[in-house]
Write a structure and sequence with these properties.
alpha/beta; Rossmann fold; binds adenosine-5'-monophosphate-propyl ester
């Protein structure tokens, strides 16, 4: 495997040594980089699978991202905001601090208290981090929903979290169109009486309907005090809920705490990005996902960094938008997804080559496996062979990076396509079904054998599910649901999901959720969905649908109806590339759909043992569909 020897010349062997000798004391040392109102009595209280980090310590995320910078960084830009339509705004650390305090006072005046939940459904505008930090200031738990989700999805999330306030905007820009966010919220909360108020930011100035619950952000901000003391919160006080898709039913609310989470973030940003005062950081993730929470909102601000925040689609109005932004703001660190890179790669080298990208010094990738050829393109064409690439593996549940090259800590050879090694303090292995370590270069299941500070506290309102989903496959080990292999140099290669979760353009989609949406159509008897490899999106969804007997509707009409239903019930991100109507699904004799078979067939792998299969003709019908897909892929290549 080819190696690339490039780093930033940093060699801090002490950190790794400390972490290996005693990971608990090690994290205690890292936590001292933050501001604590009172220090902890115990670093870790580990009652598997529940961890409490920095027990007895009190801290505040809003204080650590804003107040601490007011002495020496008050006038430094915190956010260089670029609207999709070309507008721009600069917010300094002082301006952010004042706006956050004002907005916190507004929340307080509406009766929001520590522990209350607040739903935020905003586009990528500065009011989004301001709202989150205002919640954090008084210990209200924010739950941000990606602005692409439908009213039904939002309703489920608001209902599950019982949010009493919703913050939204009249509209948001996406590819030049206005997405009417307020309309979606009106629909989502229409029978949720516990929602007391909706605060509306006027972004697109489109016409909206107003109810007695609605209030305008600007009007509220006009007349409110700009000082509000940050609450001293317990280290384990919940900071946010972020809903994410899993293998069963509806999305689950991943709950993150404060002190441990911030410690994890602070350290990983320093190690992975080697952040310096002069840097201009640009992470393209939407704040509706965990990357945006951790590496757009909390982490750059913890470090007092300047960052670019971009509102819209990365290829709008054309495929040069990202390169133009890097040139305009002199971006030094760029963090994006393999899907975005694959899309840009398709447009060739001349576009990026026509912009000045010379300020870049570090490049990051996140969210899905990065193909070695895309890695190399990123390294050569965007980084001009002088920027280390960090391929960061982690999850909504882990809070921050878990496996990544760490140029801010050490210089090690990079291998295109490998995340390299775990961060200090983690004990990671690749195991077989029985939990035994597999030999080098053998595919197995990734497991994490010890707690880490950024780990989720639990699933909102469901400790049992938390235990069952993550901690029951292997005793006292966290099971992330990913395949991996470890090579002879101890480098990890992440090989995709091992469960029924899809990664489409880096977004996580649960097959069970999608199947139950399809099955709720009155003409559908059964459905199975799976991922097929896609040149740009990494994975694309295909759905197999068995209709109820005697349904004579045209398949084209049915397909249209199903696509509308999926968009309405979940959101456009869950739209299948293709829906196939079949007469039966491959099932075991006990009636379970054999998704393993679908997965193997879709990836052109051998289907293995099928002795439990009830009826072989289901496989041959579906196999012919996959053969067609393979043929069309070969044709398009
Ligand atoms: O399968 C892994 C994949 O994304 C999953 C987590 O998704 P989510 O919670 O949405 O968080 C994404 C952003 C951190 C993982 O279980 N994944 C994430 N990063 C990588 C990756 N797969 C391979 N390489 C990565 N760098």
């Amino acid at each position: 495997m080819s190696e690339i020897n490039i780093g930033l010349g940093n060699t801090d062997t002490e950190t790794r040594r400390d972490a290996e000798s005693d990971f608990v004391t090690f994290w205690g040392k890292q936590a001292k980089n933050l501001f604590w109102f009172s220090t902890w009595e115990k670093i870790l209280d580990w009652n598997p699978p529940f961890a409490k980090w920095f027990v007895g310590g009190t801290i505040n995320a809003s204080y650590n991202t804003l107040d601490i910078h007011q002495q020496d960084k008050a006038d430094k830009p915190a956010i260089l905001w670029e609207g999709e339509n070309g507008e721009s705004r600069i917010l300094t650390y002082k301006e952010m601090w004042i706006k956050v305090q004002k907005f916190t006072n507004i929340l307080k005046s509406l009766g929001v208290k520590k522990g209350d939940r607040i739903t935020i459904y905003l586009p990528m505008i500065p009011e989004l981090p301001i709202s989150m930090l205002a919640c954090a200031r008084i210990g209200a738990i924010h739950t941000v929903i990606f602005s692409g989700f439908s009213a039904t999805s939002i309703r489920d999330r608001i209902d599950d979290s019982k949010s009493k306030i919703v913050i939204t905007a009249d509209g948001g820009y996406r590819r030049g169109n206005v997405i009417k966010l307020k309309e979606v919220i009106d629909e989502a909360i229409k029978d949720l009486d516990f929602v007391q108020n909706v605060i509306v930011v006027e972004r697109a100035k489109n016409k909206i309907n107003l109810s007695s619950k609605d209030m305008f952000w600007n009007e509220l901000m006009n007349d409110v005090s700009d000082t509000c003391v940050a609450e001293k919160l317990d280290s384990s006080h919940p900071l946010y809920i972020l809903y994410t898709s899993g293998t069963t039913g509806k999305p689950k609310g991943v709950l993150h705490g404060t002190g441990g989470y911030l410690t994890h973030l602070y350290s990983t940003f320093k190690w992975a990005f080697d952040i310096r005062d002069s840097d201009v950081f640009f992470c393209t993730a939407d704040i509706g996902w965990v990357t945006g929470h951790s590496y757009v909102v909390y982490d750059p601000l913890l470090h007092g960094a300047t960052q670019v925040m971009y509102e819209g689609a990365p290829d709008f109005p054309d495929a040069s938008r990202m390169w133009e932004i890097i040139q305009k703001y002199h971006v030094t660190i760029f963090y994006t997804t393999p899907t975005t890179l694959r899309m840009f790669m398709k447009f060739g080298d001349s576009l990026p080559n026509s912009f000045d990208l010379s300020t870049l010094r570090l490049l990051g990738s996140v969210g899905e496996p990065i193909n070695p050829e895309v890695w190399k393109w990123y390294f050569k064409v965007i980084g001009k062979e002088k920027c280390p690439i960090i391929d960061t593996w982690w999850q909504t549940e882990t809070g921050g990076m878990m496996i990544s090259a760490l140029p801010g800590l050490e210089t090690i050879p990079l291998k295109p396509g490998s995340g390299t090694r775990p961060i200090p303090g983690l004990d990671v292995s690749v195991v077989d079904e029985s939990g035994n370590d597999v030999p080098e270069n053998t595919k197995g299941f990734l497991v994490i054998k010890n707690p880490w500070p950024g780990m989720l506290l639990t699933l909102w309102g469901d400790d049992k599910k938390y235990r069952d989903v993550y901690w029951s496959k292997y005793k006292n080990c966290y099971y992330p649901g990913d395949y991996a292999l470890k090579d002879a140099d101890g480098y990890f290669w992440l090989l995709g999901r091992a469960d029924d979760v899809l990664k489409v353009s880096g977004h996580r989609i649960g097959t069970a959720e999608l199947e139950s949406c399809i099955v709720s159509h009155s003409d559908v008897a059964e459905s199975a969905v799976c991922g097929v490899s896609d040149e740009i999106k990494g994975e694309a969804i295909i759905a197999f649908v068995v209709l109820k007997q005697n349904v004579i509707k045209d398949h084209i009409i049915l397909e249209k109806e199903l696509l509308i239903k999926i968009r309405n019930d979940i959101g456009a991100i869950a739209t299948p590339k293709q829906i196939y109507f079949v007469t039966k699904l491959p099932k075991t004799r006990s009636g379970k759909i054999m998704r393993r078979l679908l997965k193997a067939m879709s990836s052109n792998e051998t289907i293995g043992d099928v002795s439990t299969l009830e009826d072989g003709t289901a496989v041959s019908e579906i196999q012919s569909v996959f053969d067609e897909i393979q043929k069309s892929i070969q044709k398009s290549n």
